[in-house]
Design goal:
Blueprint lengths: L4 E4 L10 H15 L10 E7 L2 E6 L3 E5 L5 E5 L9
Antiparallel strand pairs: 1-2, 2-3, 3-4, 4-5
Length: 85
């Protein structure tokens, strides 16, 4: 079992975040800082592991995970409404 960890978007990800996810996480964060995050606190990331694969989930519902080919994939948690983002 691997324990997850949390960090704030825009800060350095912890060492436990796999290198394969880091560039894509940075790209997602770039869109955060250049879009509608106005004066509010930056959302947080949560790193968890599902069946041995890392999943970084932003509080907004955006996810970054590894696809079957080992490349980072950006997704979104279904079912979240705008008030939950």
């Amino acid at each position: 079992m691997q324990l997850g960890t949390r960090w704030t978007a825009g800060s350095q990800p912890p060492a436990s975040v796999p290198a394969e996810l880091r560039e894509t996480i940075a790209q997602v964060e770039h869109h955060l800082t250049s879009s509608a995050v106005q004066g509010g606190a930056m959302p947080g990331w949560t790193l968890t592991w599902l069946e041995g694969r890392p999943i970084a989930e932003l509080d907004t519902g955006v996810t970054v995970s590894l696809g079957p080919d080992g490349k980072a994939v950006v997704g979104h948690i279904d079912g979240m409404n705008d008030a939950e983002r």
